[in-house]
Specification:
Oligomer: single chain
Radius of gyration: 14 Å
Number of helices: 3
Structural class: mainly alpha
Largest sheet: none
Order of helices and strands: HHH
């Protein structure tokens, strides 16, 4: 799975939980997408914080570099 695919997967997982208050359908969809994107960024930040705390005990392949790329792809959505 590419970093972009992971970013899209995370955004889609949160999308169903995104709250919106607007009236017209287009604005609702846009607001839901923005909220889902923010939720996905929060999830990645939590993962990055955990990895940074546990850095010395984790294998090299679990570095923050890949998750930084996922975060960048979420920002690009």
């Amino acid at each position: 799975m590419t970093h972009k695919q992971k970013a899209i997967e995370l955004e889609e997982k949160y999308e169903q939980f995104a709250d919106y208050q607007e009236c017209d359908v287009f604005t609702q969809r846009e607001r839901m997408f923005i909220n889902a994107k923010q939720c996905a960024l929060i999830a990645v930040d939590e993962i990055l914080q955990y990895i940074n705390r546990m850095n010395k005990m984790l294998p090299q392949h679990l570095s923050t570099e890949g998750w930084q790329e996922v975060k960048q792809e979420i920002d690009n959505l």
